[in-house]
Design goal:
Blueprint (H helix, E strand, L loop, with lengths): L2 E4 L5 H12 L5 E3 L8 H6 L7 E4 L7 E3 L1 H11 L10 H35 L6 H23 L12 H15 L10 H12 L1 H16 L7
Parallel strand pairs: 1-2
Antiparallel strand pairs: 1-3, 3-4
Helix pairs in contact: 1-3, 1-6, 4-5, 4-6, 5-7, 6-7
This protein binds glutathione.
Glutathione (GSH) binds next to helix 1 and helix 3.
Length: 225
């Protein structure tokens, strides 16, 4: 097998990349990396000290790529079918916009405001800081949920009427929210909730979510939504 993905399953960026690999039917090995205590050989291939990093030995023994967006774009060229980036120029750019929005805005607010105070706290042996997470949910996230709910409208997908990297990039961050026991309110954001149910139900997502839940449950973290 020529592809190795370095990273931890709970990272939304690692999950985004794993979903793309699964959707394209590409086999790979997941090499777990604890990014908070990375081994020196990982630092050599990740200049920003971040996961994921992909190695493709079919290109060469030292062919490594950091960054989920660079990796997903590479996989699209390596294995064009099924296409996960739209062909139409404007749709293509909109898909990249949603990917960027998700990887910056959603990642930062969900990560520091909800996932870290709840799940990471528990993993580090501290109690969950529900007050901090609740505050993020009520004060910071409605603006993001409003935007996404408006953009998805009655559509199944964010761009061009087809499943794309935009949907994967948005949906992966909501898995981390769910792991902490939170989801956008159904009555206020029906389109967004419908979208998430559908996308998280795809085999590419559902398999990973089930494995992650099992792992979290074994550590005493299980929130029913
Ligand atoms: N833009 C990067 C972001 C990756 C990222 O921030 N990964 C987090 C884990 S979810 C990480 O490695 N954090 C470690 C750190 O910032 O020190 C990507 O898309 O891969």
């Amino acid at each position: 097998m020529s592809l190795t993905l370095y990273g931890s399953p709970l990272s939304p960026f690692v999950r985004k990349t794993r979903v793309v690999l699964a959707e394209k039917g590409l086999d790979y090995t997941l090499d777990p990396v604890n990014v908070f205590a990375p081994p020196p050989e990982f630092l050599a291939i990740s200049p920003l000290k971040r996961i994921p990093v992909l190695r493709d030995t079919s290109v060469g023994p030292d062919a490594t790529l950091p960054d989920s967006s660079a990796i997903c774009a590479y996989l699209e060229k390596k294995q064009p079918e099924p296409a996960l980036y739209p062909d139409v120029p404007f749709d293509y750019a909109r898909a990249l916009w949603f990917e960027e929005y998700a990887d910056s805005e959603l990642a930062s607010l969900f990560g520091t405001g909800v996932f870290r105070p709840v799940v990471v706290n528990i993993l580090m042996g501290k109690g969950p800081d529900r007050e901090a997470a609740d505050k993020t949910m009520t004060e910071k996230l409605p603006r993001l949920f409003d935007y996404l709910n408006r953009e998805i409208g009655d559509n199944a997908f964010f761009v061009g009427g087809r499943f794309s990297v935009a949907d994967i990039a948005v949906a992966t961050h909501f898995v981390n929210l769910a792991h902490a026991g939170y989801a956008p309110d159904e009555a206020s954001y029906p389109g967004l909730r419908r979208f998430l149910t559908t996308i998280h139900g795809r085999p590419s997502f559902a398999t990973l979510i089930a494995d992650e839940r099992k792992m979290l449950a074994s550590l005493g973290i299980a929130y029913a939504l």
